[in-house]
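Lab meeting tomorrow. Look over both lines:
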Amino acid sequence: MVAGAATAAVAAVGEFAGISLVVGGTPMPTSGFAMLTVIFSVVGLVPTLALARPVRPPGRLSAEISGSTSP
């Protein structure tokens, strides 16, 4: 939500500074930037959470390969 608000604020400042927000012949509202930022943040978060897994300590084999003598 914070990223969406920040994106909308930057788009509004850019529009105020004279930067064109015309996309495909029609002007894109600043709220559109916020909405797309939130949507694509969620799209990126979903696979991240799905692929996240707890990490377990390295096994005995990796300790032997590294030359460690502690268990």
Observations:
- The chain has a mean pLDDT of 81.
- Residues 2-43 form one domain.
- Strands lie at 22-23, 26-27.
- Helices lie at 2-16, 30-51, 60-66.
